[in-house]
Design goal:
heterodimer; A: mainly alpha; MetI-like fold; 9 helices; elongated; B: alpha/beta; Rossmann fold; six-stranded mixed beta sheet; four-stranded antiparallel beta sheet; 12 strands
């Protein structure tokens, strides 16, 4: 174990990379979630259809293959991405597909009465979504987004396969250099668990903040 | 006095169920109308057609001199575009049975937001108007509460204030007391009654409160099976109805009128 600890600088470096990768991918995924999720409500069939194809493609194919595609295949087409960028885009696009379903389901769950109230006040559809439906849907999205964030953290481990020096990559290095197997992987398991615990705590905090003073589940009720 | 609403031969079905059959109806500007009748007789559908929530199958609806569900292009009547409906909705606002307040906004924001977004009022004017209207419906001091912190009657009064803030020419009230506990009904009806006396807004109300219909309305329409069976001043309808069907219906309310 002591031997592993002498590698703590690279473990710290790996931890930072994993966190960076997670945060950057989360931002991409969040954007994608809203764009693709809301596109499902578009008036234009082409937009809705594109969103469905996107969702089914990224949900229906392997995340590892998507990442390999970004890193190994795109250069053949003349697009060279750094490993980190390829990782962020692949993780973001993949998790964003799942996130779009969270956005769609939450917005859809806001009942017809809220639509009708907005129509009665002459809101246009942008105003309906922006000021009525989405603000009510967001508190419902947060817990599920929290779960997805953990999925994303775990997915970033795959990025070590495209030479990103994240935690998992560093564990491999330690294993090769020390011939120890149990210790490095045990250590990174603990680190992953610690990171995810922090993420869960953060999500709960945000969820609490959003539920304060409102009762959004009672849309239009008595 | 001009006709502000006119239904000409309007029919509407939901699947096999015909809820309006060749309906002709006009409402004068400033008139207060009460629509009564058994459930499923098409009263609410009339309000929902006027609020553009329910399209018509055939016929013509005129509101304030313009086609509601149609628009005229090159002398041809075509189904109304969303843009046309948007224009027509400026004149009309509806208060719903279930209040339909925005649960994520405070009471005052429920009234301020539509003014700012739709009427392009500035925030201060909108706020002043909201305060004024909340006072009118007897809810001073509730500004910063959320809808779920209020009783049903209070929520409905906020919804009325919100509709008033839009300065509509026509206000539609769809069974606004039906979702309320009995002891909360009066506070809402009192507000409506005061409104009817003090404004020249055209008001259509669907109600099962016969006492209220009698005090509130200039004219009462009795509906049954998608048709107007009888219409006239409240005194006539309630004390001396001509049609047997009206008498039968009103029997259910004996002692309550």
């Amino acid at each position: 174990m002591n031997e592993v600890l002498t590698f703590s600088p690279i473990l710290i470096e790996g931890t930072i990379t994993t966190i960076e990768l997670t945060i950057a991918s989360a931002i991409v995924a969040l954007l994608i979630s809203f764009i693709v999720g809301l596109a499902r409500f578009s008036r234009h069939r082409f937009v809705r259809w594109t969103a469905v194809v996107y969702l089914e493609f990224f949900r229906g194919t392997s995340a590892i293959v998507q990442m390999f595609f970004m890193y190994y295949v795109l250069p053949l087409l003349g697009v060279n991405l750094s490993p980190l960028l390829a990782g962020v885009i692949a993780c973001g696009l993949n998790i964003g597909a799942y996130g779009s379903e969270i956005v769609r389901a939450a917005v859809q769950s806001i009942g017809r009465p809220q639509h009708e109230a907005a129509i009665s006040l002459n809101y246009n559809s942008y105003q309906l979504y922006r000021y009525v439906l989405i603000p009510q849907a967001i508190p419902m999205m947060i817990p599920t987004f929290g779960n997805l964030l953990i999925e994303l953290l775990k997915l970033t481990a795959v990025a070590s396969l495209i030479t990103i020096s994240d935690l998992t990559f560093m564990a491999q290095i330690i294993r090769v250099q020390t011939a120890l197997t149990l210790e490095p992987f045990l250590v990174i398991l603990v680190i992953y668990f610690a990171i995810s615990s922090i993420l869960i705590a953060m999500t709960n905090l945000i969820a609490k903040k959003f539920s304060k003073g409102r009762n959004t589940m009672q849309a239009g009720g008595n | 006095m001009n006709k502000i609403i006119e239904f000409q031969g309007v029919s509407k079905s939901f699947g096999d169920l015909q809820v309006l059959e060749n309906l002709n109806l006009h409402v004068m500007s400033g008139e207060k109308l009460a629509l009564i009748g058994p459930s499923g007789s098409g009263k609410t559908t009339i309000l929902r057609i006027l609020m553009t929530l329910e399209p018509i199958d055939s016929g013509i609806v005129m509101v304030d001199g313009d086609y509601l569900w149609h628009q005229k292009t090159d002398n041809k009547l075509e189904p109304a575009s969303e843009k046309h409906l948007h224009k027509m909705r400026q004149n009309i606002c509806m208060v719903f049975q279930q209040f339909n307040l925005f649960p994520h906004l405070t009471v005052v924001d429920n009234i301020v937001q539509p003014q700012v977004l739709i009427k392009k009022s500035n925030k201060n004017d909108a706020l002043n108007k909201a305060e004024e209207l909340l006072a009118l419906v007897g809810l001073e001091g509730k500004e910063s509460q959320y809808p779920h912190q209020l009783s049903g009657g209070q929520q409905q009064r906020v919804a009325i204030a919100r509709a008033l803030a839009m300065d509509p020419k026509i206000m539609l009230f769809d069974e606004v007391t039906s979702a309320l506990d009995p002891e909360l009904v009066d506070e809402v009806l009192t507000v409506l009654h005061q409104l009817a006396e003090s404004t020249d807004t055209t008001m259509l109300t669907v109600t099962h409160e016969m006492n209220f219909a009698r005090d509130f309305a200039d004219r009462v329409l009795f509906f049954d099976k998608g048709k107007i069976v009888e219409s006239g001043p409240p005194d006539m309808i309630f004390t001396n109805p001509k049609e047997a069907r009206t008498r039968d219906f009103l029997k259910n309310f004996i002692g309550k009128i």
